[in-house]
Design goal:
Hypothetical Cytosolic Protein, Chain: A, 3-stranded antiparallel sheet, two-stranded antiparallel ribbon, binds zinc ion
């Protein structure tokens, strides 16, 4: 039996490769705001440790990324509030 192939994706901040399902899939909308993946268009991934440690706020880390992550913290804070309620 062949090993099941697990889709692997890369976190844009730390460039760590992880299973796709362990990563948070995001995209940039037409207003250049980071939003959760809407099912179409280009997307990118963020790993849980970057979310936890807020590595995406580190300018040195994100300098080379051509995506504006400035509203990401706000987006993720919204998720935490939703989980609590
Ligand atoms: Zn990461």
């Amino acid at each position: 039996m062949r090993a099941k192939k697990v889709p692997i994706r890369m976190c844009i901040v730390c460039r760590k490769r992880e299973e796709q399902k362990k990563l948070l899939r995001l995209q940039v909308d037409e207003n250049e705001k980071v939003v959760f993946y809407q099912g179409r268009g280009r997307s990118f991934y963020l790993c849980s440790s970057c979310i936890e440690k807020k590595t995406y706020l580190n300018k040195k880390r994100t300098r080379k990324i051509k995506i504006n992550l400035s509203n990401l913290e706000e987006l993720l804070e919204g998720v935490k509030i939703n989980v609590k309620n």
